[in-house]
Amino acid sequence: MTSTRDRQQAVELVNEAHAAGARLKSACAELGIGLNTYRRWAAGGQDKRPHAIRPKPTKALSDAERQAVLDVCHQPEFASLPPAQIVARLADQGTYLASESTFYRILHDANEQHHRGRMAPPRQPGPPPRHRADGALQTWSWDVTYLPTAVRGQFYYLYMIIDIYSRKIVDSEVFASENADNSSILIRRAVLREQCCHAPPRLHADNGGAMKGSTLLATLQKLEINPSFSRPRVSNDNAFSEAMFRTCKYRPDYPTTGFESLEAAREWVHHFVQWYNHEHRHSEVDPKIRTRG
Q1: C-alpha to C-alpha distance for 223 and 198, rounded to whole angstroms
Q2: What is the Cα–Cα distance from 83 to 4, expressed in whole angstroms?
């Protein structure tokens, strides 16, 4: 519901655009309103909807019926049961007072709908982690992906770290297994290579085991790196690394039939990193910025 102040501001903006030569329909479309809405708002008057007297629904329960629901919930045999169980047991007895949702509404209005039991109450998910980088070596994103081998069902594991500002691949390595020890090796090497021990970047990753292992967490603490993790089952929170792997695996020379050996996989990744950091023209970043990063 749009407040009176917002309505007046919208009308002023439309009038200003119309006076400058814009058509009313186009100006209204920019604000997401129609011509009839603009004319009604321009006519003035207060919005009376918040103070309107609305009739009571014809099927609403009476006070006596609502009290009957509360009395049933207060009975010893139902006192510790949720409305879903109460409604079902009443139905087995041939009694119907109200729907399950109505039970919940009545209990909530009577301030009797609270969390019970030893289990922790449900929590609303917080906002996704947000990090802003206005320069290189401030925030890194990293992840692990599969690389196919010549043996079906067997894979190598590509670890890759990318600077989200310059989009430079800070470091990468292919391992025969995925674990926190390999993650620690890569992180330590990347920090030393970029010479950022005095000002370590923030490191963002998903919730994989290789990203949250005790060995890696100890390494991050020693390097004074502040880790950041994606929300569970939300791959978009680590979009930079996911996009990087997409670019990697859709290169024309990517061996879709699998790598013959671990050394062959490492050699191919090495050439890809050189191409990406020094030849590839990223659509979102000035190549000079990526080179300096």
Answers
A1: 9
A2: 42
Backbone CA torsion sign across 45, 47, 51, 52:
positive
What is the dihedral sign for C-alpha 103, 106, 110, 113?
A: positive
Which strands sit side by side in the sheet containing 139-148, from one edge to the other?
Answer: 169-175, 155-163, 139-148, 202-205, 227-229
Structural tokens at position 29 = 């479309």
- Residue carrying structure tokens 């470091």: 171
Is residue 201 within 8 Å of 171, Cβ to Cβ? no
Superfamily of domain 139-292: Ribonuclease H-like superfamily/Ribonuclease H (3.30.420.10)
Distance CA 284, CA 267 (A): 27
The closest of 189, 140, 132, 133 to 168, measured between CA atoms, is 140
Residue 224: is it exposed, middle or buried by C-beta count within 10 angstroms (0-12/13-18/19+)?
Answer: exposed
User: What is the per-residue pLDDT across 117-174, written as a single tens digit (0 to 9) for each?
Assistant: 777 777 777 777 677 888 888 999 999 999 999 998 899 999 999 998 888 999 999 9
Contacts of 199 (CB under 8 A, 6+ apart): 137
Classified as helix, coil or strand, 130 is coil
For residue 233, pLDDT over 90 is answered with no
29 secondary structure, DSSP code:
H
Please give the angle made by the CA atoms of 188, 189 and 192, to the nearest 5 degrees: 85
- Beta strand residue intervals within the chain, DSSP E: 139-148, 155-163, 169-175, 202-205, 227-229
Q: How far apart are CA 159 and CA 210, in angstroms?
A: 10
Model pLDDT for residues 271-287, shown as the tens digit of each residue: 999 999 888 887 766 65
Partners of residue 169 on adjacent β-strands: 162
Neighbouring-strand partners of residue 149: 259
The Cα 20–Cα 18 span in angstroms is: 5
